[in-house]
Design goal:
- Helices cover 42% and strands 21% of the residues.
- It is an alpha+beta fold and 100 residues long.
- Helix 1 packs across helix 2.
Length: 100
């Protein structure tokens, strides 16, 4: 008896998920100027003047604010760029990243 070859292939199930997103949070301090925070929000996070001022006031009153939600690499890159700008100006601005 000859064996017949089957042309049926088993499919492997792959579990695909959307990558995890991360919140970038800016924290209040007593030394970084409000104008500098607005400039960072506009330059690094591409916020409008009005939105940057609103976020800056939220940080001032609430001690922190979420400035954006990004993939991990983008969030870290933006935090690093903003922190570098702050250190060049002598400000202790602090930004952190948390899972959404």
């Amino acid at each position: 008896m000859a064996q017949e070859q089957s042309s049926v292939r088993e499919r492997q199930r792959t579990d695909l998920r959307e990558p995890r997103r991360y919140k970038v949070i800016i924290h209040n301090d007593d030394f970084t100027t409000m104008d500098f925070v607005v400039m960072v929000l506009m330059t690094v996070f591409h916020k409008s003047q009005a939105e940057a001022e609103q976020l800056m006031l939220q940080v001032h009153h609430s001690d922190q604010a979420v400035v954006g939600i990004y993939s991990y690499d983008v969030a870290q890159s933006k935090i690093q760029r903003a922190t570098m700008m702050a250190r060049e100006e002598g400000f202790p601005l602090r930004l952190t990243c948390q899972p959404e």
